[in-house]
């Protein structure tokens, strides 16, 4: 082993190169371990290279709202306008949405599940989200068709949308296709769409299928208002992968296709009433799809990521060309 | 229930696959070590290529391999790499001859390293090095064909490894499993300082795949480790006072909440 002279010390490694290493570490390690190694590393880890991708979904569940806002502002500020991916859950303050929009000039992936955004806020910020190609507004119960329309009209590059809903939020409400019509009329380039437990009905889905010719994946599990013949879909939309039971009646299992997660109805019923478990399930599910989607554009990373374990996603996602 | 058993089956398959991959990679490592020893033995001889030798007909791969091993004397490399001065670019007869010969086959690019070694690489490899490709794009076709591109901050040993990586990477890209195995084998063959030098070179030449691959390996080595471990691992001196470190923890208390320091090695 050669002796390290001053010039070749790791401490003096070019900040850019250090940044590449640090981006492979968790947020917690980038904040609690790396900066304490030495002062030059503390400087390197606050540089923009380390913060082009911010994923604090896990942190979000443990923070107080004001704490979360301050953390997010600090991290976004570090990215210095180069922020590309942002994942954060449960945002509540109107000013934080504005702050995100003001720093979204390079942002292409935005996940804001369970946020308190409403139509008015979306209308204000949508104009600055024009670079977005993937958006997750699952479980955002305060937005509706108008917000989706604003998003569709301003985010011309949008290819992926997550609009999953929690079954407890949609239970006992009438079917409603306004959001489907908003999607169909403003998001023609969609390739990936998730609307689990949404109130959408058959005619809404047909509108989307008719107006989004590039659609490759549709998750409509728990969309009890949708009844579409499997053969019809295969003939009309051969490239489309559809996930989800096609029946109105939750007690009827005959209509479920191969992708159903539940093998028999009694199991499903028991599972249905465990609200906490269900929430966890959906969060994980959404994450795995998002993960696959994020990697699609980078073949190497996709292949590598698959082996690092996105356990079930490989069963649903078609192989890359 | 059905899903769980399916998932556990998949996990078992993954585990056995990994075990097989590790067994294979350990065998390959043995071969790799032998190859490296031979390469070092060869490279300890300083060989000057004569024009007559350059004109001999050899297979393309063999020729490049010979050039790589013969033209990277380690002692000279280490000595040269300590100097920060810019090496003057000198056109040599060998370079000119090699370039002429290269043009007959397919487009090739001449690269001259910090320690004066000239490499002939295929155009697609030069393209992987975005800094080199940018230089080529900025230069007119006539002049770029005649002159070796100077690489002021890259030593011959690093460039040889980068070229090797690009070739093997393309070969291994046919399947994800092969690719992962190759990347692990490639990184395992390097000691920590060789890894650092290669990261610096890859960063300078903007060879993204190599840079990301090496960075993943380094990050993997320090994941879930303590601050002290990271310092020792990299040989970094702690320039914080006790007060400064305590100050940092206080300022960033939000990030240390729920941190279990004992769980780190």
Account of the protein in words:
The complex is a heterodimer of chains A (321) and B (265). Chain A is built from 16 helices and 8 strands. Chain A is α/β, with parallel strands linked by helices. The longest helix of chain A is centred in the C-terminal third of the chain and has 21 residues, at 275-295. Chain A has 2 domains: 11-49; 50-241, Alpha-Beta Horseshoe (Leucine-rich repeat, LRR (right-handed beta-alpha superhelix)), CATH 3.80.10. The radius of gyration of chain A is 21 Å and the shape is elongated. In chain B, strands 2-1-3 form a 3-stranded mixed sheet, with helices on both faces. Chain B starts with a helix and ends in a 9-residue tail after the last helix. Mean pLDDT of chain B is 65; it is low at 1-104. Among the domains of chain B are: 106-222, 2-Layer Sandwich (Potassium Channel Kv1.1, Chain A); 227-256, no CATH class. Chain B is mainly alpha-helical and 265 residues long. In chain B, a hairpin with a 5-residue loop joins strand 1 and strand 2. In chain B, helix 1 packs across helix 10 (176-188), helix 9 (156-172) packs across helix 11 and helix 11 (192-205) runs antiparallel to helix 12. Chain B is elongated, with a radius of gyration of 23 Å. The longest helix of chain B is centred in the N-terminal third of the chain and has 42 residues, at 2-43. Chain B has helices spanning 2-43, 51-55, 60-70, 74-81, 93-105, 123-128, 130-138, 141-146, 156-172, 176-188, 192-205, 208-222, 227-234, 242-251, 253-256, and strands at 108-112, 118-122, 149-150. Chains A and B meet through helix 1, helix 2, helix 3 and helix 15 of A and helix 1, helix 10, helix 11, helix 12 and helix 13 of B.
């Amino acid at each position: 082993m050669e002796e390290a002279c001053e010039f070749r010390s790791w401490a003096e490694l070019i900040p850019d190169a250090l940044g590449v290493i640090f981006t492979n570490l968790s947020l917690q390690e980038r904040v609690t371990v790396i900066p304490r190694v030495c002062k030059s590393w503390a400087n390197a880890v606050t540089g923009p290279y380390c913060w082009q991708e911010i994923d604090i979904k896990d942190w979000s569940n443990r923070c107080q709202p004001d704490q979360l806002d301050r953390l997010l502002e600090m991290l976004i500020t570090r990215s210095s306008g180069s922020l590309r991916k942002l994942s954060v859950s449960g945002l509540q303050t109107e000013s934080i949405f504005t702050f995100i929009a003001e720093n979204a000039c390079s942002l292409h992936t935005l996940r804001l599940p369970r946020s308190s955004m409403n139509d008015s806020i979306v209308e204000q910020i949508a104009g600055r989200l024009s670079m977005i190609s993937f958006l997750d507004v699952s479980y955002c119960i305060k937005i509706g068709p108008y917000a989706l329309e604003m998003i569709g009209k301003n985010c011309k590059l949008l290819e992926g949308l997550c609009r999953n809903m929690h079954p407890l939020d949609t239970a006992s409400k009438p079917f409603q296709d306004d959001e489907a019509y908003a999607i169909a009329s403003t998001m023609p380039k969609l390739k990936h769409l998730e609307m689990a437990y949404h109130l959408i009905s058959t005619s809404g889905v047909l509108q989307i299928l008719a107006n989004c010719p590039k659609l490759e994946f549709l998750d409509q599990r728990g969309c009890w208002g949708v009844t579409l013949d499997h053969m019809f879909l295969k003939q009309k939309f051969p490239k489309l992968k559809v996930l989800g039971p096609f029946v109105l009646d939750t007690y009827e299992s005959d209509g479920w296709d191969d992708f159903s997660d539940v093998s028999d109805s009694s199991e499903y019923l028991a599972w249905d009433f465990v609200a906490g478990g269900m929430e966890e399930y959906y969060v994980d599910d959404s994450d795995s799809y998002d993960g696959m989607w994020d990697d699609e554009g980078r073949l190497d990373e996709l292949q590598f990521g698959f082996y690092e374990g996105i356990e079930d996603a490989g069963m649903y996602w078609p192989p890359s060309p | 229930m059905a899903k769980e058993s399916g998932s556990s089956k998949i996990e078992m398959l993954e585990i056995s696959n990994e075990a097989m991959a590790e067994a294979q990679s350990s065998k390959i490592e043995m071969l790799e070590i032998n190859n490296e020893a031979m390469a070092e033995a060869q490279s300890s001889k300083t060989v000057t290529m004569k024009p007559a030798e350059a004109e001999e007909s050899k297979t393309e791969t063999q020729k490049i391999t010979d050039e790589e091993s013969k033209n990277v004397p380690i002692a000279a490399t280490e000595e040269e790499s300590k100097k920060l001065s810019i090496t003057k670019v000198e056109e040599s007869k060998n370079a000119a001859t090699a370039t002429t010969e290269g043009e007959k086959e397919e487009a090739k690019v001449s690269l001259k390293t910090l320690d004066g070694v000239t490499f002939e690489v295929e155009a697609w490899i030069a393209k992987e090095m975005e800094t080199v490709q940018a230089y080529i794009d900025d230069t007119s076709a006539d002049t770029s064909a005649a002159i070796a591109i100077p690489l002021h901050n890259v030593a011959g040993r690093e460039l040889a490894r980068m070229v090797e990586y690009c070739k093997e990477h393309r070969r291994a890209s046919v399947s994800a499993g092969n690719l992962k195995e190759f990347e692990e084998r490639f990184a395992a063959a390097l000691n920590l300082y060789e890894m650092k030098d290669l990261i610096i070179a890859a960063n300078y030449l903007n060879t993204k795949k190599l840079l990301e691959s090496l960075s993943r390996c380094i990050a993997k080595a320090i994941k879930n480790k303590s601050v002290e471990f990271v310092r020792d691992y990299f040989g970094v001196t702690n320039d914080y006072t006790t007060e400064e470190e305590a100050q940092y923890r206080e300022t960033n208390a939000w990030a240390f909440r729920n941190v279990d320091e004992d769980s780190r090695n």
